[in-house]
Amino acid sequence: MPHLSTLRPARAHSPPPDEDNPVDPQQDIHARLKRRITELERERDANAHAKPATSRTNVTLGRIIRKAVSFNQPIAAIIGEYDRRAEYEDEHGSLDDLSVDDEQRRLHNAFIELEKLIPSLKKTLANVDMDQYNQTLTEFQHGASAAVGDDNNSIRSAIIAFLPLPSTVEEALDPSSRENRGLESSITGPLLCPAVHNWNNQTTRANVINGKAGYEVNAHKWPLCIYRNSEYNPEKKFAGFLKAKSLVQVCVLLVSYPVVTGFEVAMHIFTSPGSASNANESGRYVEDSEAEQENIDPSAVRSREPPRKRRKKMSVQPKGSVADKFRIRHVTPRMIAYAAVQQRFNLSDATNWYELDGAFDYSVYYNNIIDFFESAPSPTSRKKVQELLCWWDRRIFPRSCGSSSTRPSIQAHSAVDDMHAELELDEN
């Protein structure tokens, strides 16, 4: 019987190298270059009709600009303010004597937020030509406009889950339309009413609905919808301010994608669909006691940036969410202001988006909210607004915290000034 080894097929052997005719090194290099050129030409042909990656990136960045940078300022104006300051500093050596009005201050702060999203922004601006610059602005604007429209539509239906239940079928809100909302609705009317007016008083209610002098609904009066439990105390204007459950839920909805239920609206703007719909189970937006809600010590909340050794235990925002894509880990005043605009708009009966809703100017409303945070005049008020931001972090990013132009008018700042004045008072 033949040995097993004799049944195996014969192993092919490579011919020995021809030592008498070695490969020409130059010929070998030439052959590799030809192969590389062929490969590059194939890649070029395959990508000839593909959309440039930079274009997609700029459109994506544009979608977050309205949410986290500025809702009402043109992107070109934001960059223009940076240029103005840079040119002044080049000429004078410092910015100490630079004249800055409220709008320019907001533009500058918006540029700071934009640079957080695009760390290489200044370097890019220094090296881009005008054609590229104009193309980038166009892409930014395209993404920004699309995002606002998408947010309007998603919040329109989602916000119903966080409003009082209707007493009758006739009072029920249509998730596909805003036509039965507004001041005349028994559900949305009390929320749109200025907090300084008593909606429960029949005469007052009629005056507000009819827009009687002194009862106008405008952006100089805080609407009741931004107060916790829709309760306003004229003796303690800051109590519950910007702590409405529906406002927090809208903010979450605006950093995620649509389709949410339960405790969800602020979670929808910056996180993901699942993070909002699982709010109760995950611990997001857990109601505190009255005392804890009003008295949050930032030092007790620990640093807003968790220690490195704790980060492995942190639950990061789901992949694909706005917060995950742009590494957003903290709530900012501009996120809150944008959420407030979306909340108020979707309580109204406006069929389409306009900056003005009757006498209510959304641009002024947005500016008043960011001014409340960014223009706090003293250490006491700055401490209070920082505590409020920590309160927001605990509800939207709990692991991260660890436990258009202004209309110059005295009245335009009255609501903000009143709130700052109260923050100056002794806590007791």
Explain the overall architecture:
Residues 1-28, 275-321 are annotated as: Disordered. There is one protein chain. This protein is an all-alpha fold and 428 residues long. Helices cover 48% and strands 1% of the residues. The chain is built from 18 helices and two strands. It has helices at residues 25-46, 53-68, 75-92, 102-117, 121-127, 130-158, 189-192, 202-210, 245-253, 273-277, 279-282, 290-294, 322-325, 333-345, 362-374, 379-396, 398-401, 414-424, and strands at 356-357, 360-361. A two-stranded antiparallel sheet has the order 1-2. The longest helix is centred in the middle third of the chain and has 29 residues, at 130-158. The chain is elongated. The relative contact order is 0.10. Mean pLDDT is 76; it is low at 1-14, 51-55, 257-266, 272-317 and 403-413.
Oligomer: single chain
N/C terminus separation = 106 Å
**Elements, N to C (H/E):** HHHHHHHHHHHHHHEEHHHH
Measured as a percent range, the helix fraction is 40-55%
Alpha-carbon Rg, integer = 29 Å
- The fraction of residues in strands falls at under 5%
